[in-house]
């Protein structure tokens, strides 16, 4: 029996996307920038996908969708695209729980002389809007706050945070890679200026992403060349991959309410079944949370025996795919920087795991996973018995 519970890492490409990708490779393989019929067919595929992705996030102008190779490139384009507008380093604000596509980009900007403020979070991983208001300076040009944190599932108060930035005349970006297709999003009601999303998080296949750029917002492109994607992302578009992204976006919008409700029931059931493990605590905000996301850590664990990476390996041997927040460098296990930012001890931050549910997750999968995890903890000597 195999159970995949790592949907926040990637999702299996859905059959409808595979079929469209295959058909596009066979019949719409032309260069979409070409003026002849073959190019026109491919261009139609791109623009159809653009409309579908725009609809998913409530963008009234499809040309506000800039296709990229993924969420990481979209994040980089947002931060670097703004930074390159300025001859002299300015000030940016991010949170302390950003994805590395944001935090590493900010680190490089810091090396270039930019001032970076990293807002702290509370024990649930949430940014306090008052902290953002206090951090904005005269030379602040961009705020980037993650929409939903991939390791702990916490959803930020994006509308409130974006409103604060807009009132101060500061651009606001959010990495919504984990949220799009799982939560209802309307970029115009949220008042965000830039938003990143990714195809392979919504069953559309790997290799495509997008950056929403509010009309009127200026960026300097990272890639120069033929001027594709409204002059913001040069290079011949990956037509078939973008087609898969588009159909996945359309279907995600159609299924959003029913699938989210189903996943919330499964998520809460798994949390409940793990609640009797001694020392185990749920991480992140349990109410403002991604519908498919279960994350826990074991505060009393012996880090040499029970750590996130070891639990991932043990679960994998049992046929269950999960993930850990801790990292391993040169053989040494390092605590999760996200859990450390939330105030957890180093020992607890090494014993965090994440189980994320998806289209193929069943009630039986959830029950089996809880039982197997307890068996593993018993075998490792952490718990003496389980029910």
What does it look like?
Helix 6 links the parallel strand 5 (140-144) and strand 6. The chain has 387 residues and is of the alpha/beta class. It is built from 12 helices and 15 strands. It is globular, with a radius of gyration of 21 Å. Helices cover 39% and strands 16% of the residues. The protein has 2 domains: 3-8 and 257-379, Aspartate Aminotransferase, domain 1; 15-252, Type I PLP-dependent aspartate aminotransferase-like (Major domain) (Aspartate Aminotransferase, domain 2, 3-Layer(aba) Sandwich), CATH 3.40.640.10.
Q: Provide the CATH superfamily of the largest domain.
A: Type I PLP-dependent aspartate aminotransferase-like (Major domain)
Distance between the termini: 21 Å
Q: What overall geometry do the principal axes of the alpha carbons give?
A: globular
Here the CATH topology of the largest domain equals Aspartate Aminotransferase, domain 2
**Discrete helix count:** 12
Number of domains: 2
Assigned CATH architecture of the largest domain: 3-Layer(aba) Sandwich
Taken in chain order, the helices and strands follow as EHHEHEHEHEHEHEEHEEHEEEEHHEH
Which residues sit in consecutive blocks of at least 5 with pLDDT less than 50?
Answer: none
Work out the strand percent: 15-25%
Average the pLDDT over all residues and give the rounded result. 94
Number of DSSP-assigned strands? 15
Strands in their spatial order, largest beta sheet: 2-8-7-6-5-3-4
Major sheet size, sense and barrel closure: 7 strands, mixed
State the helicity in percent bands.
Answer: 25-40%
CATH class of the largest domain: Alpha Beta
Rg: 21 Å
Structural class: alpha/beta
Quaternary state of the chains: single chain
């Amino acid at each position: 029996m195999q159970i995949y519970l790592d949907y926040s890492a990637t999702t299996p490409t859905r059959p409808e996307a595979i079929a469209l990708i295959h058909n596009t490779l066979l019949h719409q393989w032309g260069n979409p920038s070409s003026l002849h019929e073959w190019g026109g067919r491919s261009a139609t595929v791109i623009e159809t996908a653009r409309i579908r992705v725009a609809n998913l996030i409530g963008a009234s102008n499809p040309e506000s969708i800039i296709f990229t190779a993924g969420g990481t490139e979209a994040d980089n384009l947002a931060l670097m695209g703004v930074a390159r507008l300025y001859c002299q380093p300015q000030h940016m604000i991010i949170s302390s729980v950003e994805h590395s596509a944001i935090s590493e980009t900010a680190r490089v900007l810091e090396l270039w002389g930019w001032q970076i403020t990293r807002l702290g979070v509370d024990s649930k991983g949430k940014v306090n809007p008052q902290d953002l208001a206090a951090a904005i300076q005269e030379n602040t040009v961009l705020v980037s706050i993650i929409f939903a944190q991939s390791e702990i599932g916490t959803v930020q108060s994006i509308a409130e945070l974006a409103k604060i930035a807009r009132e101060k005349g500061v651009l606001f970006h959010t990495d919504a890679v984990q949220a799009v297709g799982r939560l209802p999003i309307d970029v115009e009601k949220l008042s965000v200026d830039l938003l990143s999303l990714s195809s392979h998080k919504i069953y559309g296949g790997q290799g495509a992403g997008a950056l929403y750029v509010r009309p009127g917002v200026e960026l300097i492109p990272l890639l120069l060349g033929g001027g594709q994607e409204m002059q913001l992302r040069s290079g011949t578009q990956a037509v078939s991959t973008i087609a898969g992204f588009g159909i996945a976006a359309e279907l995600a919008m159609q299924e959003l309410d029913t699938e989210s409700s189903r996943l919330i029931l499964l998520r809460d059931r798994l949390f409940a079944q793990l609640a009797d493990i001694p020392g185990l605590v749920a991480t992140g905000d349990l109410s403002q949370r991604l519908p498919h996301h279960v994350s826990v850590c074991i505060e009393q664990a012996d880090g040499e025996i029970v750590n996130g990476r070891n639990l991932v390996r043990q679960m994998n041997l049992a046929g269950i795919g999960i993930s850990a927040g801790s990292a391993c460098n040169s053989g040494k296990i390092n605590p999760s920087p996200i859990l450390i930012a939330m105030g957890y001890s180093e020992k607890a931050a090494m014993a965090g795991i994440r189980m994320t549910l998806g289209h193929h997750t069943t009630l039986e999968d959830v029950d089996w996973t809880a039982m197997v995890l307890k068996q593993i903890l018993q075998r490792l000597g952490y718990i003496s018995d389980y029910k």
